[in-house]
Amino acid sequence: MVRRVLVTRPQPGADRTASRLAQSGFDAIVLPLSETVPLVAETIDAADFDAIAVTSANAIRHATPAALSALRNKPVFAVGLRTAATCREAGLTLVFEADGDAMALARVLCAQTPPASRVLYLCGKVRRPHFEAVLAMHGIVTTALELYDTLMLCPSEDEVHRTLGHDAVTDVLVFSQKAAFAILSLARLPALAPLLAPARYICISERVADAFSGIDVRRRVVAATPDEQAMIALLDEER
User: Fold this and answer.
1) Percent of residues, the chain, with pLDDT higher than 90
2) pLDDT score recorded for residue 215
3) Residues of the chain with CATH 3.40.50.10090
4) Where does the pLDDT of residue 239 fall: very low under 50, low under 70, confident under 90, or very high at 90 and above?
5) Burial category of 98 from C-beta neighbours within 10 Å (exposed 0-12, middle 13-18, buried 19 and up)
6) Which among 2, 31, 76, 112 could disulfide-bond with 52, CB atoms 3.0 to 4.6 Å apart, if both were Cys?
């Protein structure tokens, strides 16, 4: 049986993930349940900072060309391979990468930048405080530049039906708590419940999985590392 996998992440990542799944033989269905939108950020002076930190490629996508140009020659510490690649594609030249999560990035920064260093953190409005807290404990002075916000999408019942068709979904890739709350709301609708009832929720992190606390534990799994590759590895285990 070909597994039907629902991809809920925002665009443009959703189409990229779906293409990767299709190439691996899965029936990938794209239904973004959140979106990222740009914010008007304050003007910054690159000379005020010793390094740049990036925990999401979305921050680079929503940065202005002028901001990226000003930061071009600064050392950039990216959370993982894909974010690092996005930084390089945007013209940033001195890019270091961590192992894929914010705490790993914090460890790299603390190891490679001395206390009292000034770090510009390119980030979203919705974020957890742990990364900045770890840097502060190390004596690193962090300035957060919020470049985007993440908003929940609420597709109509008809739209979901058109997207899913008549066959049940076997797996849902869930990349954020906002998407988790949205899919749970959809699963409560009588017309959609049969399509989502058998689904297994593959969560990018424990925090996302917490949103499914009322779901049978056998239907929610957490990726070994917080990235797409680890989520797809869980799909491969079921084939």
Assistant:
1) 73
2) 84
3) 4-33+153-237, 37-151
4) low
5) buried
6) 76
Residue 12: cis peptide before it, omega within 30 degrees of 0: yes
Domain 37-151 class in CATH: alpha beta
Count of Cβ atoms closer than 10 Å to residue 235 Cβ: 19
Residue 101, both tokens = 């999560």
46 near 118, Cβ under 8 Å?
no
Helix (H) or strand (E) holding 78: strand 75-78
Residues in the chain: 239
Measured distance CA(80)–CA(24) in Å, rounded = 23
Give the pLDDT confidence of 180-190 residue by residue, as tens digits: 999 999 988 88
CB 168 within 8 A of CB 198: yes
- Helical (H) or strand (E) element with 79: none
pTM of the model: 0.86
Tokens (6 digits) for 22? 């299709």
In this model, does residue 236 exceed pLDDT 70? yes
Q: Does 3.30.1360.120 match the CATH number of domain 4-33+153-237?
A: no
Rounded CA gap, 145 and 26, in Å?
38
pLDDT digits (tens, 9 = 90+) for 84-97: 999 999 999 999 99
Question: How many beta carbons lie within 10 A of that of residue 178, not counting itself?
Answer: 21
Give the three-state DSSP class for 122: strand
CA–CA separation, 152 and 116 (whole Å): 37
